[in-house]
């Protein structure tokens, strides 16, 4: 079991505030300070420092956080596994991004659940950055994410490749004209997902490769809902860039039109991730293999 001082440290890493840590753990603020001081003496290094008034992890603190959060996650899974031995059931917490959850994994996951009635799966839908944070904090076991991410403490495998496609209202100049580069779209109103979205990160990366940014467009509107973005595009409010899986039905039905982009397509991997070195890695990999197979069948 994790030492109680280690749990205080993990809480402080999440809250970045000793007062909130004390409230979260129902202990006093001096006790929080004592626990952190003990760990710093034990390891012989400072774990936190103040940048202005904000509490930040040092390099040593980051290293210890990654190690202890992985241990806390495996401890939780071990407790659940021991409890599951009595009931014959198995639990798994699975994170998915919006596009993945709505358009790529729902049907394969439904088939998986039907095939494994003894498995209780908790599915959490959020942006890539939120899911990665919850994974590292031990709140979820594994995830399917979009976008770019730091792989140093994660085990990862490619689930599939998706093309990021430009979409506009059908019958408009863009849908009827010839191919156009990103530079030819800058006078348009662009509709994008919120910061932290994998779809947005991939678009921003593609723009940066061309020395452009979202600020290069004449107007930008942030929308967290894919369905609202698609409704806005269909009403000719603006254009957007979404994964092909998210707009396939609308493109086939003629409710949206594809912008014929010049140059190579913008492709990006949908990636399965979990914490590297977990003692439950075999379980996560088995789950991934079945989902991948079901998505192809």
Automatic annotation (TrEMBL):
Pfam family, one: HTH_1
Gene3D superfamilies, per database record: Periplasmic binding protein-like II, Winged helix-like DNA-binding domain superfamily/Winged helix DNA-binding domain
Transcription is among the record's keywords: yes
The HTH lysR-type domain, residue ranges: 1-58
Assigned keywords, A-Z: DNA-binding, Transcription, Transcription regulation
GO molecular function, one term: transcription cis-regulatory region binding
Cross-referenced PROSITE patterns: HTH_LYSR
Coiled coil: none
Domain of life: Bacteria
Family per similarity comment: Belongs to the LysR transcriptional regulatory family.
Name assigned to this protein: LysR family transcriptional regulator
Organism for this UniProt entry: Candidatus Aveggerthella stercoripullorum
């Amino acid at each position: 079991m994790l030492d109680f001082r280690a749990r205080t440290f993990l809480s402080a890493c999440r809250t970045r505030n000793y007062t909130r840590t004390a409230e979260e753990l129902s202990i006093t603020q001096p006790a929080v300070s004592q626990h952190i001081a003990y760990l710093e003496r034990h390891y012989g290094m400072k774990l936190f420092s103040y940048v202005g008034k904000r509490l930040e992890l040092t390099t040593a603190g980051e290293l210890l956080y990654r190690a202890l959060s992985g241990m806390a996650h495996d401890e939780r899974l071990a407790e659940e596994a021991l409890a599951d031995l009595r009931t014959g059931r198995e639990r798994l917490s699975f994170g998915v991004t919006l596009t993945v959850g709505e358009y790529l994994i729902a049907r394969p996951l439904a088939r998986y659940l039907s095939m494994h009635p003894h498995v209780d799966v908790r599915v959490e839908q959020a942006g890539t950055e939120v899911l990665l944070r919850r994974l590292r904090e031990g709140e979820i076991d594994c995830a399917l994410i979009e976008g770019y991410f730091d792989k140093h403490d994660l085990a990862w495998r490619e689930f599939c490749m998706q093309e990021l496609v430009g979409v506009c209202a059908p019958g408009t100049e863009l849908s009827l004209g010839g191919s156009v580069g990103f530079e030819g779209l800058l006078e348009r109103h662009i509709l994008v997902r919120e910061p932290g979205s994998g779809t947005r990160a991939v678009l921003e990366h593609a723009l940066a490769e061309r020395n452009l940014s979202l600020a290069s467009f004449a107007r930008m509107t942030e929308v967290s809902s894919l369905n609202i973005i698609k409704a806005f595009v269909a009403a000719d409010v603006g254009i957007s860039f979404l994964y092909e899986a998210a707009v396939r039905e609308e493109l086939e039905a003629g409710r949206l039109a594809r912008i014929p982009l010049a140059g190579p397509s913008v492709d990006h991997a949908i990636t399965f991730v979990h914490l590297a070195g977990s003692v439950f890695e075999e379980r996560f990999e088995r789950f991934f293999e079945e989902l991948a197979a079901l998505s192809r069948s």
